[in-house]
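Morning!

As promised:
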Amino acid sequence: MPGNDKCIKCASRLSWIGIWDSAFLALFKGVIGILTGSRALTASALYSLHDVISGVAVLIGLKIATRPADKEYPYGYGNAEYIVCVFTSILILGATVFLLGDCIRIIFMGEHAPPHWAALAAAITSVAANEVIYRFNICAYKHMNSPALLAHAKHHRADVISSLAVVVAVVGGAMGYHFLDVVVAVFEAGHLLFLSIELLYQGGSGLIDRAIEDNDVSLIRQLLSDMTEVKEVKDIKTRQIGRSVWVDLYVSLPRDKTIAEVNTISERIRQCVGDRIEHTGNVSVICE
Amino acid sequence: MIAQHCVNCGKKIEWLVLGINFCLFLLKGWFALISHSKSLLTDSFESLANFIITIIVLVSLKMASKNADDKFPYGYGKVEFLASAIVNMLLMIAAIVFIFISFSEMVMVGPERPPRLIAIVAAVVSIITNYIAFGYGRCVGEKLGSSAILANAQVSRADIGTSVVVIVAVVGSNLGLSQLDHIAAIVICIFIIKVTLDGVNKAVKGLMDVSLRAEELHIRNLIEDIEGIERVGDVRARLAGRSLLVDVDIFLPSNWVLSKGLETARKIKSALFRKMKDISDVSVQLLPLAAPGDPPQNRPSIRERKK
């Protein structure tokens, strides 16, 4: 793996630092947003909350979901990650809809007082903190080439932009453009709505046993048909249990082979599929 | 032998309970408004909650019956669990919000005019209809051996409890215990939270593919005696909505030819499909029994294989 020890240490800490940073900002911006009546800042707080949750879901995926299967959960714990995604995305969805409703109420009821300067301070803190974390993530990403770190970095960049929008809204409000706060809030809430529905869909479809990518299924099919012993591939069923991929292969093999020989072939198939598909949890070879 | 009229009852009962809950929601909601009883209002919310849950279950059953396709090769059965988890969670949040509202009214508004006694009428109607629904549901559930119908009957019986709480609260607050109506509303909310938590728990277990001990044992017993099977390895069953997906590993003598093994697999399938009607799919993996002295052969490890 590229990168020196210092980088590896830095990268392993970054996800935790990112989560604590976002959690602190979510609380800070949320409280100040509600107290000062700045809807834009409240929306920005929900943004940070979204980051906390996706970060925690990833950590749960790494901790609980890789726990090996046992008597209680014979198919492993992978789905815990999806369940966290579904529940938390519903919470964010609820909060966002509530906020949007509030914004619409303000728009129709008319005048809205300019938010307090405290909102500005909170927004600037958020810009600075997220920018720092973003820089760290990008640095670690460049040295380690990990897509997860890039995703983290992008989250924090999005946070910087959302907080900058709040700064504009508060300053604009002070200059007399009171509507700016609500406009920024509506935009951010709209984007959040989109993000949380995406999260909900990801978690939900994973729980309903979504198959892996079509490309990977065709790759497995190709691997199997390249084997001379395999007469026919009847069916390939795959599902994702959190991070691991479970595969059921329905194949027909020559009928005059003994069970021991069949087992050797199956073992080779398992090895082959396990080598080519990332994170295979279990491969069953079922003769038909 | 199940009598034909019991089967007919089984088909009707879900719709009947649905209708009862909706009527009770309207009746209790209306009486709550004219009698100003907070506890009756939460009680009507509970009927609404039951109504919504039943509707979601019926709708998701329709969706779940959709055939498996490329995107979801194991079918859509789990939609039922997912829908139930989400709905129960939303209702739980609503109950928590209700508790906060009741608390703040209790503290900020202080003693109010007690609710009018007319609220009792709605509560009594609710008790009687729920009792009928419970008795009916228990009869059908026991005759058909359906745990889903029996569980629904339990919900109807639990609703009797909340309506009794309403009567106590309305009478008590008219006798001078002014806060009793608010307290009863909170008690009913806590009750709703418990019921919805159970619902979430059940759905999450289904989504996590929790082990089905009783079914797995039953399957093991059914196939153990089939000729030629040396040992039954792992038996795993998981629920996709109301149907069971079964994975079985069996150990056969290692010198058998495959065609004999396939014959055994077919016997296993037909035995399981015949005896357990909930099973929708069985996958049989054939493994050779290790010769004495060989290291024991187990199912390929479940552990994640890193690239």
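Chain B touches chain A through 52 residues (CB under 8 Å).

Hope this helps with the figure draft.
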